[in-house]
Design a protein that fits this description.
mainly beta, Beta-clip-like, five-stranded antiparallel β-sheet, two-stranded antiparallel sheet, globular
Length: 130
């Protein structure tokens, strides 16, 4: 259903993204990414590394490293996918927010809410990215 390919939205050395290999219907489960959670107070150590930009908030007291394809979904303020934290299964579950055509890049809003247009921590000029 999904594959990793070069993305025009991602820059730098790791210009990858997640793409649909077939049509995906709105609401369909795309991927269950296993997580490795750790207490927020340990994040100070991760912030010293490249991994800091790839972590997800995981509840009020934890941050998580996503495995599988979870860390490779790129950001959009008009996403075609969304995600839910699944604490029972220790996964972040990605779902189609809209119908997604085969070949389309699957995009999420890093702010956690599909319609949230708050600036992201890694954009230097927020207005140019909207």
């Amino acid at each position: 259903m999904i594959e990793i390919k070069a993305s025009k939205l991602s820059d730098g050395e790791f210009n990858r993204g997640v793409f649909a290999t077939r049509d995906i219907a709105k609401g369909e489960l795309i991927h269950e990414a296993p997580v490795i959670p750790y207490p927020n107070e340990q994040h100070v150590h991760i912030e010293k590394t490249l991994l800091a930009d790839y972590m997800f908030e995981y509840g009020a007291n934890h941050t998580a490293l996503l495995l599988g394809y979870g860390m490779l979904f790129n950001h959009s303020y008009t996403p075609n996918a969304t995600y839910d934290l699944n604490f029972d299964n220790h996964t972040v579950d990605f779902f189609a927010y809209t119908d997604i055509a085969a070949g389309d890049e699957i995009l999420i809003n890093y702010n956690g809410e599909e319609d949230c247009d708050d600036p992201l921590w890694f954009y230097e000029d927020y207005e140019e990215t909207k």
